[in-house]
Amino acid sequence: MLFFVALSLGLSYLSLHGFHPRGAIAYLFAVLPAIAIIRTLVSGGMYLSEETDEFQRHLFVQSILWGVGGIMVLTSVWGWLQLYTHIIHFFTIWTFPFFLLFQSVTWQVLRRRNR
Question: Per the confidence metrics, is the pTM higher than 0.90?
Fold first, then answer.
């Protein structure tokens, strides 16, 4: 996964400094960062299927639900703010990192609360 993140950062740097791919290469470069996201989701699914402790699995599922809820609230509120105010545009590329932030913080809070 680190490879795809480094590759994405490198391609972003190149695109900011004059390298603008066209055609199929542009589509390939756009899809590459999604591979890291897919890998993260698969890792979470594998963790859920291999976790033997039902309570830990329950906490992880709860944190995923809180993450989904958090991102839905964030994007909804931001969308309404964009409609009625002059707030900057929310780039959808930030949706997954915000989901991971909500999910990770919630998982840690739930784990510490239920020691």
Answer: no
